[in-house]
């Protein structure tokens, strides 16, 4: 091959020489050949190759101008000519049904095109009394033209549009909206008055007004000559339910008997009816503002109903009455929150502590009892327990103090101690509905739901008045849901307020 390659290549090629040497057995390479020598030969060959490539001219790039000579000189005219040529060819071709339909649509569009243009121009023009007067159009009037003609000429101002809308609504419905408006106005006015009343009650402006008391429909003691004496005897027999009816008969005979109202309120409180107790006790205080027993009992019932600030106000009046002062001089500051007024609480607490310090080493059971109620309001149950225990040490046979101690211990998460306190109250007053109910709640907290149901059932059987609306039912229903393996007919019986049915179910469940 050398004879053929030599004339073309001229001088000897180093790459060819290298290939010839490499083609021989590499075993013949001297062992003393070092890497730098090989590297130097490779670098010289690479540099020679790069110089040869650099000496060659670069290839020419693609020239776009060479194509422009093949394009038409007038692109617009050429494209128009091409389009016309295509259209003529299409027109000469046989026309299908779809093509015929397209042609008809095109002709129709061309005929109505001026109407479209006019409508669009009018829609873009500024609104004025002249531009909104649309003339008679063809059957192909643009939708915006009709819109401007029927609607936009009425949108002169928001006030006029509102009047127009009102007139249209009244005419379409023959004036019925006027009645609706008046009815809504009356409803809004009634709602506003209700809001004002609630705000006034929250501020204490009308809370001192006694609530309306509702009497029992059937009272067997209305014919008694002295029902209040009968009520006292029934209370002595631990029968608060019938005593309540006797006191009701007493106030119906004489609605200005403050003492009868007070005893009626106490009977309702022991019967687990705080709302009725509040109404009766307010009647008593309205007649006899300095009645200490009524003031303290009213404070307790209000606290049970979540009326902390009102309860605090009654406790403040109680302390004044307890010292022989005039409670009419005490005014309640406005309060706009349902949360306890801490500033007012600190003031009343200091007043109580000052009176307690003045007593020296002699403890006052009534004052310690009121202090226990006071500390229950701000959830300071430790101090409340200490105060009530001092009162119990002075009057250990008072079941109300034992029940109050149990409730305070339960609020302070001392449920086992609370159960013991409730049992002490029931030992002294077996028909004490409130203590029986509280004991059931403590049993629920200890997960003794079966025993809790028994206590709730006993409380309902002892409770007098409207048992169907008693709040004990809802608590009993909650206990029934938590009872393991409860009979399926237990909750329906509770929903139906069936005392005897619940009793039979629980008896069969126990056996």
UniProtKB/TrEMBL annotation:
Coiled coil: none
Keywords from the named record: Kinase, Magnesium, Metal-binding, TPR repeat, Transferase
Origin superkingdom: Eukaryota
A Pfam family recorded for this sequence: TPR_1
GO terms, biological process: glucose metabolic process
InterPro entries: ADP_PFK/GK, TPR-like_helical_dom_sf, TPR_rpt
GO cellular component, one term: endoplasmic reticulum
TPR repeat windows: 258-291, 365-398, 399-432, 433-466
Keyword Transferase among record annotations: yes
SMART domains the UniProt entry points to: TPR
Any one GO molecular-function label of the UniProt entry: metal ion binding
Matches recorded under PROSITE patterns: TPR
Protein's name according to its UniProt entry: Uncharacterized protein
Organism of this sequence: Diploscapter pachys
């Amino acid at each position: 091959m050398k004879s053929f390659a030599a004339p073309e290549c001229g001088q000897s090629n180093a790459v060819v020489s290298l290939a010839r040497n490499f083609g021989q057995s590499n075993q013949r390479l001297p062992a003393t050949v070092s890497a730098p020598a090989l590297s130097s030969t490779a670098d010289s060959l690479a540099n020679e190759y790069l110089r040869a490539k650099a000496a060659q001219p670069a290839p020419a790039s693609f020239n776009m101008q060479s194509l422009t000579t093949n394009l038409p000189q007038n692109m617009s005219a050429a494209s128009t000519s091409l389009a016309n040529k295509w259209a003529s060819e299409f027109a000469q071709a046989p026309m299908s049904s779809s093509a015929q339909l397209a042609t008809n649509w095109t002709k129709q569009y061309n005929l109505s095109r001026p109407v479209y243009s006019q409508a669009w121009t009018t829609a873009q023009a500024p609104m004025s009394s002249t531009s909104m007067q649309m003339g008679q159009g063809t059957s192909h009037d643009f939708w915006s033209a009709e819109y401007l003609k029927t609607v936009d000429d009425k949108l002169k101002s928001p006030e006029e549009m509102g009047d127009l809308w009102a007139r249209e609504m009244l005419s379409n419905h023959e004036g019925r909206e006027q009645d609706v408006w008046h009815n809504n106005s009356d409803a809004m006015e009634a709602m506003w008055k209700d809001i004002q009343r609630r705000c006034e009650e929250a501020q204490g402006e009308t809370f001192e007004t006694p609530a309306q008391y509702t009497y029992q429909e059937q009272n067997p003691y209305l014919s008694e000559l002295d029902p209040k004496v009968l009520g006292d005897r029934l209370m002595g027999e631990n029968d608060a339910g019938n005593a309540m009816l006797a006191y009701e008969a007493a106030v119906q005979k004489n609605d200005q008997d403050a003492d009868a109202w007070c005893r009626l309120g106490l009977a309702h409180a022991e019967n687990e009816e705080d709302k009725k107790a509040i109404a009766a006790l307010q009647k008593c205080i309205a007649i006899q503002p300095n009645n200490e027993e009524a003031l303290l009992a009213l404070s307790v019932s209000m606290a049970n109903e979540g009326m902390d600030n009102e309860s605090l106000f009654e406790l403040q009046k109680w302390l004044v009455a307890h010292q022989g002062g005039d409670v009419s001089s005490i005014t309640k500051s406005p309060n706009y929150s349902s949360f306890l007024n801490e500033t007012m609480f600190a003031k009343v607490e200091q007043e109580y502590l000052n009176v307690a310090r003045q007593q020296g080493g002699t403890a006052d059971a009534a004052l310690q009892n009121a202090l226990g109620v006071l500390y229950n309001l701000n959830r300071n149950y430790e101090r409340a327990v200490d105060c009530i225990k001092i009162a119990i040490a002075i009057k250990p046979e008072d079941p109300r103090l034992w029940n109050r101690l149990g409730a305070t211990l339960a609020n302070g998460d001392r449920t086992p101690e609370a159960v013991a306190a409730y049992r002490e109250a029931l030992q002294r007053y077996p028909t004490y509905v409130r203590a029986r109910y509280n004991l059931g709640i403590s049993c629920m907290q200890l997960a003794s739901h079966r025993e809790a149901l028994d206590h709730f059932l006993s409380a309902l059987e002892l409770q007098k008045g409207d048992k169907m609306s008693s709040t004990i039912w809802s608590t009993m229903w909650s206990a029934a849901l938590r009872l393991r393996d409860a009979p399926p007919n237990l909750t329906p019986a509770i929903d139906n307020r069936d005392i005897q049915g619940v009793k039979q179910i629980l008896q069969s469940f126990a056996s």
